[in-house]
């Protein structure tokens, strides 16, 4: 119920070795779309998350220098996931995107995976290498579904996290805006942030169901 609801800060911190470990767990995931298997995307190779979501870029780094491409890719990945749960599509909100860009600029020097103090839902992703894409971030958040039960509304076993996933499939969130940034020193990596409004992740509420008013 809403009375005990509070905003849960979302955080993901992916070290390179954890990333590869996660990728090798892909056989645990549900079948990808189009009946294609994911075999061959394990080990030190990145999963082709854009392909998983059926997204075709106009160029490999289109989202880096074309804001329309960045918006299209983030929206496509989010709404692919939401359509899996028959949820209404998220709409892009330029104010949220602008907030995400400004906030990541504050993190430009330290590249730290630290949350903003905004009252939005906020998913963040850090990668040491610079090759991570909008689809990659959403894919890793989506993969948390492995640990989430819609029956018990629990994420198990500890210390698994599911809040990025539950924010993406939060029915009452209607708008999203994201940013992606390489940090000052290339060696410190890159950050991705998505802001959601209204914020999701109220305790003891089913993400897929309208909140009790
Ligand atoms: C940016 O991407 C969009 C969508 O693919 C495209 O229509 C537009 O021409 C691109 N803009 C530039 C400057 O390349
Ligand atoms: C950082 O990486 C980009 C390519 O992603 C490159 O263009 C740039 O020169 C690099 N900067 C430094 C300081 O190495």
TrEMBL record:
Where in the sequence is the signal peptide annotated? 1-21
Q: Which residues form the SCP domain?
A: 69-204
Q: Which domain of life is it from?
A: Eukaryota
* Cellular-component GO terms for this entry: extracellular space
> Per UniProt, which keywords does this protein have?
Signal
What SMART domains has UniProt attached to this entry?
Answer: SCP
Output the PANTHER family linked to this UniProt entry. Answer: CYSTEINE-RICH SECRETORY PROTEIN-RELATED
- Protein name as it appears in the record: CAP, cysteine-rich secretory protein, antigen 5
From which organism does this entry originate?
A: Medicago truncatula (Barrel medic)
